[in-house]
Design brief:
The complex is a heterodimer of chains A (325) and B (534). Chain A has twelve helices and six strands. Chain A is of the alpha+beta class and 325 residues long. In chain A, the strands form two sheets. Chain A has a four-stranded antiparallel beta sheet with strand order 3-4-2-5. Chain A has a two-stranded parallel sheet with strand order 1-6. Chain B folds into three domains: 212 residues, Up-down Bundle (Multidrug efflux transporter AcrB transmembrane fold); 91 residues, Gyrase A, domain 2 (2-Layer Sandwich); 153 residues, 2-Layer Sandwich (Gyrase A, domain 2). Classes of the chains: A alpha+beta (325), B alpha+beta (534).
Chain lengths: 325, 534
C-alpha cells in the first residue's frame, strides 16, 4: 500500500528569502493589533467587567429576535443591554451592567434578573433560559488581573525554560513569537468584537503552549544542524531545518485542525468562541515559529560557535571520529 | 532503546490496563447502562456547566468582625471592672478608630485594672502574640488595640463557623450533594448541582439571622425619632416593613436586651388568634432564664424584636413569659417564616455574607453540550485515526491504538482522582488527542528521514525514537508550564481545562512514546523486516 505523503520528500523551499518583508508585515500586524485593542477595545464579557449575562435559546424560532429584545429590555430602565448571538442563530446572550448600589445590596441585581427574564418570557413563547451569570465588580477585577498575570507569567516562564534548554537567543526568539501570537489573537478579537471571557484566556494559553510546541521542534532541529553543519551560513541552515521539519509541521497542524473543525461544526455552541480562537491560533502559531522565531536567531547572532561550550567532550570526540568536524 | 525486558513489559501493560479499566464505569454510565454494584465505581464528575446547577461565591467583610470584637470587648471590660474588688470606676469610654480607650478615675487603681483586664486577652496564632495590646498612656488612660494576629484569628474563626452555618442551612433545604468550600481568607464557594432557581438559597444565605430583643425607649419624642435623634443610652432602629402613616423607625435601649442565640429550636407555626404565619422559638435553659427575667421586670412595656438590625415587631409585654418559648410575629408569609426558622435553627452567621458572584446553568444546555461534545470528539478522533493510518501504515496503526488507550487512561485517571469535567475540559480532551498525535508524527517522520538517509531498519527506528524524544520532552514541559499556570490562576471551568491538560500530557507521552515503542520493538524482533513501509 502506498502511504499518504502530504509533503514531498526533500523539499527545499527558501522560506527565509522573504524574511525581511515578512518581518515588516508581522511587526505592522502586531502594531495594528494593539492599535485595534486600544482604540476599539476588547468586547469583555461579564467575567472581566462585571455585570450580568443571561443566556437564552428561542426554541421555536430559527432566529432570535435581537432588535425586539433590545427594545423590550431597554424599556426596563436598567440601561442599554448588549445582546449578541452566539453559536446557533436562535441563541443569544444578554449582557447588562449591575444596577447602581448592587455592591451593597445584592437584592437589586436579583430583581433585575427577575424583571429581565420575565420580560423575555412574556414577549416570546418557547424561550429557554440556559443560564444566568452575575459577577460583581470586585470579582471581575480580580479575574481580570489574575488572567493578565497568568498570561504574563506563562510567557516569561516558558522563555526562561527555553533559555535554559537552548541559548538565550532562542529564549528571546520564542518570547517574540509568543508576543506575536498573543497580539494577533487579541487583535482579531478586537476587530470582530468577539466576546472575550475567561475561556478565551484558557484558549490563548493553549495557543501559547502549541505555538511553542512548533517553535521547539524547529529550534531542536536548528540546534542539531548547528552541531552537524558547522560551515553552513545561517540563512541556509535555518531553511534546511524548517524544510526538514516541514512534513511534521503540516501533519500535526492538520490533525489539530481536523479535530478543532469537528469541534467547531459539531461541538456545543458555547465552545464556539473558544474553539475558534484556538483554531486561528494554530495558524498564527505555525507561521510565527517559521517566520518569527527562526529568523530572529540570525539577527541575534547565533552561529555554530554558540553551541561549542555546550557540547560535552564525548559528543565532540564522536564527531571527530565520524569526521564531521 | 528497543530493548524491553519481560518485567518491564508486564509492568507497562499493568499500568496501562489498570488506568484504562478505571474509565469503564464512566463510559457505562454515559451510554446509559448500569455498572455492577459489587465493583468499585470511580466516575468522572461533571462540572456545573455540564450538569446544570448553581455556583455562588459569598464574601464576608472582615471589618465587621473587627467591629463586633470591639463591641464585645467593651462589654467584657465594663463587666470585669465592675466585678473587681473593690469596684474600679471608669469614664470617658470610647471605641473609635478600631481601638477601645477609657480613663480609670482613681489613679491608684491602674495596676488593679490592668490585673483585671489581662484575663480578657488570649494568645493568638503561633507567634505567642496576644490578641489585644493593653497600653496605659498619660498615667490613667487605658488603650486596648487589637493585634493583627488577633484579628486574623478572629476572621478565621468567624469564617469557620460561618461555613458550618451555611452548610447547616443548605442541608435544611434538602438539596443534593452541595459543595461548600472556604476560599481565601474571607470567602465561601457554594455549588449546588441541579439547582435551577438559586433565589431561595441566596435569600437563606443572605440572612445573617441575628435575633435580638430590646426594650423600646418610650421616653423618646416621635419628632426626634423621625429625625434619627436617640435619647442618651438608646439607638434608632428602622422597621423591616413600613406602611404609610406609621413611623419608619423606633428608639430602643442599647443595653439590657437579650440576644436570640440561645435557642434550642425554631419552627414555623400559626398564631392561635389571627392565624398568621409566625415563628415559634424555644430558648435553652440559660436563654429562657434571661428571657423570663426581662419579661418579668418589664410587664406592660413594649419590647422590639430585631432581626439583622431591623425591627420585625414591637409588641407589648402583657405578662411574664416564663416557659422558655416565644413567638415572633412580623408580616411573614409561610415561606419567609419557614426560612427564618431554618436560619434561627442553624444559628446566626457570625458575619454578614454577600453574594459577589453567581452562575447558574440550565440542565438542557449542559446535556446538549455533553452530547455534542462527545459527537465532535468521536468524529474528530476518527478522522485523526484514519489520517494516521494512511500516512504511516503499520506505525500509524500503532499510534492509533496508543491514542485510544490514551483517551481511556485519561478518563480513568480523572475518575480515580475524582476530578471534574467541565465544558472547556472537553476542549482540553480534544487538544490532548492532538498533542498525542504530534508525538507520533514527530517519531514517524524522523524514522522516515533516517530511512531516507540509508540507515537500516532497526537503527532508523532507534534513532527516530531517540532524536524525536528530545523535542517531545521540551514541548511537553512547556505545555505543563502553561497548564500549571492555568491551574494556579484560573477559576472554575478553566481549572477543569488545566487539569485535563496536565493529566493528558502525562498519559499522551506515556502511550505515544513508551507504549508504541514497546509494540514496535516487539514487532521488529518477531518479523525482522528488511524494509518498512513508512
Amino acid at each position: 500500500m502506498r502511504l499518504l505523503k502530504l509533503v514531498p520528500d526533500n523539499t527545499n523551499i527558501k522560506f527565509l528569502r522573504w524574511r525581511i518583508p515578512f518581518y515588516v508585515i508581522s511587526c505592522l500586524l502586531i502594531a495594528a493589533s494593539w492599535a485595534l485593542v486600544l482604540t476599539k477595545g476588547l468586547n469583555f464579557g461579564v467575567d472581566f467587567v462585571g455585570g450580568q449575562m443571561i443566556r437564552a435559546t428561542f426554541v421555536q424560532d430559527t432566529e432570535a429576535p435581537v432588535s425586539e429584545l433590545r427594545k423590550e429590555i431597554g424599556k426596563l430602565g436598567y440601561g442599554e443591554p448588549v445582546i449578541q448571538r452566539f453559536g446557533a442563530p436562535n441563541e443569544v446572550s444578554v449582557r447588562m451592567r449591575l444596577p447602581e448600589g448592587a455592591a451593597q445590596d445584592p437584592a437589586l441585581s436579583d430583581t433585575m434578573t427577575r424583571n429581565v427574564v420575565s420580560t423575555i418570557r412574556a414577549a416570546h413563547e418557547g424561550v429557554r433560559i440556559d443560564g444566568v451569570d452575575s459577577v460583581s465588580g470586585k470579582v471581575s477585577g480580580e479575574l481580570f488581573s489574575t488572567a493578565r498575570w497568568s498570561l504574563f507569567f506563562a510567557m516569561i516562564a516558558i522563555s526562561i525554560y527555553i533559555w535554559i534548554r537552548f541559548e538565550w537567543q532562542f529564549g528571546v526568539g520564542a518570547l517574540f513569537a509568543l508576543v506575536h501570537d498573543v497580539s494577533l489573537t487579541l487583535g482579531l478579537f478586537a476587530l470582530f468584537q468577539l466576546e472575550f471571557d475567561l475561556n478565551i484566556v484558557a484558549a490563548i494559553l493553549t495557543i501559547i503552549g502549541y505555538s511553542l510546541n512548533d517553535t521547539i521542534v524547529v529550534y531542536d532541529r536548528i540546534r542539531e544542524n548547528l552541531k552537524k553543519y558547522r560551515k553552513m551560513p545561517m540563512p541556509e541552515l535555518l531553511d534546511l531545518s524548517v524544510n526538514e521539519t516541514l512534513a511534521r509541521t503540516v501533519m500535526t497542524s492538520l490533525t489539530l485542525v481536523v479535530v478543532l473543525v469537528a469541534l467547531l461544526l459539531l461541538g456545543p455552541q458555547s465552545l464556539f468562541g473558544f474553539t475558534a480562537a484556538i483554531t486561528l491560533g494554530i495558524f498564527v502559531g505555525t507561521y510565527s515559529s517559521i517566520y518569527m522565531a527562526a529568523p530572529i536567531l540570525i539577527w541575534l547572532g547565533v552561529t555554530p560557535a554558540s553551541f561549542v561550550p555546550n557540547e560535552s567532550g564525548s559528543e565532540r570526540q564522536e564527531k571527530v571520529a565520524r569526521g564531521e568536524v | 532503546m528497543l530493548d524491553f525486558p519481560r518485567w518491564k513489559k508486564i509492568w507497562l501493560w499493568f499500568v496501562t490496563l489498570a488506568f484504562a479499566a478505571a474509565s469503564l464505569p464512566s463510559l457505562v454510565s454515559v451510554s446509559g447502562g448500569t455498572w455492577p454494584s459489587f465493583l468499585p465505581d470511580p466516575t468522572v464528575n461533571l462540572g456545573l456547566d455540564l450538569a446544570g446547577g448553581s455556583h455562588i461565591l459569598l464574601e464576608a467583610d472582615p471589618s465587621q468582625v473587627a467591629q463586633q470584637r470591639l463591641e464585645s470587648m467593651e462589654e467584657a471590660v465594663r463587666g470585669a471592672l465592675r466585678k473587681a474588688e473593690p469596684r474600679i470606676r471608669i469614664g470617658d469610654l470610647s471605641s473609635r478608630d478600631g481601638r477601645l480607650s477609657f480613663m480609670v478615675e482613681d489613679a491608684s487603681q491602674v495596676d488593679a485594672a490592668r490585673e483585671a483586664l489581662l484575663p480578657l486577652t488570649t494568645g493568638a496564632g503561633l507567634t505567642g502574640q496576644r490578641d489585644w495590646r493593653i497600653e496605659v498612656v498619660d498615667g490613667q488612660r487605658f488603650v486596648l488595640t487589637p493585634t493583627q494576629a488577633g484579628l486574623n484569628q478572629a476572621v478565621t474563626d468567624a469564617m469557620d463557623s460561618a461555613t458550618e452555618v451555611v452548610r447547616k442551612r443548605i442541608d435544611a433545604l434538602g438539596t443534593r450533594e452541595p459543595t461548600i468550600i472556604r476560599q481565601g481568607d474571607d470567602r465561601i464557594v457554594v455549588q449546588v448541582p441541579g439547582l435551577q432557581d438559586p433565589k431561595q438559597l441566596k435569600d437563606l444565605l443572605g440572612q445573617t439571622a441575628k435575633l435580638e430583643f430590646k426594650l423600646v425607649d418610650t421616653s423618646a419624642l416621635p419628632s426626634d425619632i423621625a429625625q434619627g435623634i436617640a435619647p442618651p443610652g438608646s439607638e434608632i432602629v428602622p422597621y423591616a416593613e413600613t406602611s404609610p402613616g406609621q413611623p419608619t423607625q423606633i428608639a430602643v435601649k442599647r443595653l439590657g436586651g437579650i440576644k436570640g442565640d440561645n435557642l434550642t429550636n425554631a419552627q414555623q407555626s400559626f398564631d392561635s388568634q389571627n392565624n398568621e404565619p409566625v415563628v415559634s422559638i424555644t430558648f435553652n435553659q440559660q436563654g429562657g432564664a434571661k428571657f423570663a427575667k426581662l419579661t418579668t421586670e418589664n410587664v406592660n412595656r413594649p419590647f422590639a424584636i430585631i432581626l439583622d438590625g431591623k425591627v420585625l415587631s414591637a409588641p407589648n409585654i402583657n405578662e411574664p413569659i416564663l416557659g422558655g418559648s416565644a413567638q415572633i410575629s412580623g408580616n411573614f408569609t409561610v415561606d419567609s417564616a419557614n426560612q427564618l426558622a431554618i436560619s434561627l435553627r442553624s444559628g446566626a452567621l457570625p458575619v454578614d455574607l454577600k453574594v459577589i458572584e453567581e452562575r447558574t446553568v440550565g440542565p438542557d444546555l449542559g446535556a446538549d453540550s455533553i452530547q455534542k461534545g462527545l459527537i465532535a470528539l468521536g468524529v474528530g478522533a476518527l478522522a485523526v485515526l484514519v489520517l494516521m493510518a494512511v500516512s504511516y501504515g503499520r506505525f500509524g496503526l500503532y499510534a492509533d491504538a496508543a491514542l485510544v488507550l490514551n483517551v481511556l487512561m485519561l478518563l480513568g485517571i480523572m475518575a480515580i482522582a475524582n476530578t471534574t469535567l467541565t465544558l472547556p475540559g472537553i476542549a482540553g480532551f480534544v487538544l490532548t488527542i492532538g498533542a498525542a498525535v504530534d508525538a507520533n508524527v514527530l517519531i514517524n517522520e524522523r524514522i522516515r528521514e533516517e530511512r531516507k538517509r540509508g540507515r537500516r531498519v532497526v537503527a532508523a527506528v532507534e534513532n527516530g525514537y531517540r532524536e524525536a524524544s528530545r523535542a517531545i520532552f521540551d514541548a511537553n514541559i512547556t505545555n505543563v508550564i502553561a497548564a500549571v499556570l492555568l491551574f494556579l490562576f484560573g477559576s472554575g471551568p478553566v481549572r477543569g481545562f488545566a487539569v485535563v491538560l496536565m493529566i493528558g500530557i502525562v498519559t499522551s507521552v506515556f502511550t505515544a512514546v513508551t507504549i508504541t515503542r514497546m509494540w514496535v520493538a516487539g514487532w521488529l524482533r518477531k518479523a525482522r523486516p528488511h524494509d518498512i513501509n513508512i
